[in-house]
Amino acid sequence: MRPLTRLMSVVLLLVTGLILAGCGGSADEAPAVAALPDWVMSAPTRVREAYEYAVANPEELAKYPCYCGCGAMGHTSNLSCYIQDIAPDGTITYDNHATGCGICVDIAQDVMRLKAQGQSSPEVRAYIDAQYSPFGPGTDTALPLD
Questions:
Q1: Exposure of 127 by Cβ count < 10 A (0-12 exposed, 13-18 middle, 19+ buried)?
Q2: Given this model, what pLDDT does residue 35 score?
Q3: Cβ distance 118 to 92 under 8 Å?
Q4: Full-prediction pTM beyond 0.70?
Q5: Which helix (H) or strand (E) element contains residue 3?
Q6: Residue 93: beta bridge partners?
Q7: Fewer Cβ atoms within 10 A, N terminus or C terminus of the chain?
Q8: Contact 33, 52 (CB under 8 A)
């Protein structure tokens, strides 16, 4: 088999696998994106991605402070900029603060990027603190242990 033909076969196999994997969920499962409010869905891509990450990874995003001054609003971490509450039944009450705050979104985007690169939560926290502490007071967020 020629190298180009082999490459095309591998690509076709990968694409088929991805399509089948996307069809594997049950009819009861709805992606987290479907639960996002309209005002998030109409926001810029970076903002939507940050809200999606907050929904999918609330425990992780809660490990990092926000430095936009939102602690004065009662926020306790960067997660608070996206989610006010998650009820025991899983119902999410969203906060619209991050839709208009670039610092909130930048912090979440940095967390997403650094975690995807394999950095530990303490390493990511050190980066967030170093990069964003000059902007203002941080929320009162405990240091991550893991």
A1: middle
A2: 82
A3: no
A4: yes
A5: helix 3-22
A6: 85
A7: C
A8: yes
